[in-house]
Amino acid sequence: MSLVFLAAALYAGQDPTAETFESTYAYVVPKDKDLAWRAIPWKPVFWDAVVEAQEKDLPVLLWGMNGHPLACT
Amino acid sequence: MVWNDPAVQELAKKFVAAADEVNVILWQRGKQEAELFRKFSAEGHYKKPWQGIYAATPSGKLLGSTNQRDARVVADMLRSALEKWSALEKKDRLLPEAPSKDAGGQSLYPDGGLVLQVFSRDLPRKDGGETRGFWAGAWNEDYAWFTKDEARSLLPASREPGARQPAPERLARRLAKCHLIDNVRGEAYPFDEADVKRAEMSLVVDRLDGDVVHFLIEGATRAEHGDHGYESKLLGRASYDLKADKFTRFDLVAAGTRWGHRSRTGARQGDLDPAPLGIAFRLAATTDGADRVPPAFVLHPLGKKYFD
Question: What is the pTM of this model?
Answer without folding.
Answer: 0.89
